[in-house]
Amino acid sequence: MSPAALKRAAAARAVELVEDGMRLGLGTGSTATLFVELLGEKVRAGLSVVGVPTSEATRSAAQAAGIPLTTLDDTPELDLTIDGADEIDPQLRLIKGGGGALLREKIVAAASRRMVVIVDGAKRVETLGRFPLPIEVVPFGLGATTRAVAAAIGAAGCDGPLTLRRGADGAPFLTDGGHLILDAGLARIPDPEALARALVAVPGVVEHGLFIGLATGAIVAEAADGQPRIV
Ligand code: 5RP
Description:
This protein has helices at residues 3-15, 30-44, 56-65, 102-110, 142-155, 192-200; strands spanning 23-26, 50-53, 78-83, 87-88, 94-95, 112-120, 133-137, 162-164, 180-184, 205-208, 210-211, 217-224, 227-230.
């Protein structure tokens, strides 16, 4: 069974959590986009919700799906955020930001009473770190910030290369906020809380992709006898 089919199964189950009148955070990535598309079907059938998109890409997808949008200025508290993840561990700690939307994703998740993560089973890990950890930094002072990030990573008991993310054209990838992303190939993050504390203390770091204490639930789709199974 393809990852796309599993992602769709997780997204479809998440749509069942949405109730009339809810204020929703709309995540970013291929799984979250499937959720947005399926939610759009419900909205066109009469469901009343408003959504805050976590990226310009999701804004476009939500508009195309006919989902009414709002902002955290007009709607500072959300009922439920549905978002994907790059990794999830047994404590519902996440690595996010593979799509570069980690900053808005974290702001929206923090403004939500509940955050439910939708993933295929391949995203489950015992220890976070196999997926390179995205670290969003301001362009000013990139060389110095990169050195300080490397030191913070070492102080938190991790090790591995930092790579400036680039787009398909080879130019540095720019986030929706106009920032850069350093991807940290750490392999294992033995103490995610310590690493999170060390990274936010570095001037120039805007945000990092460790989501700790934000997810309240997860919908994980795995293949069983050729059918998606939610675990
Ligand atoms: C974007 C994210 C995504 O949720 C994450 O990359 C998972 O994406 P996908 O659903 O395409 O596998 O954090 O910043």
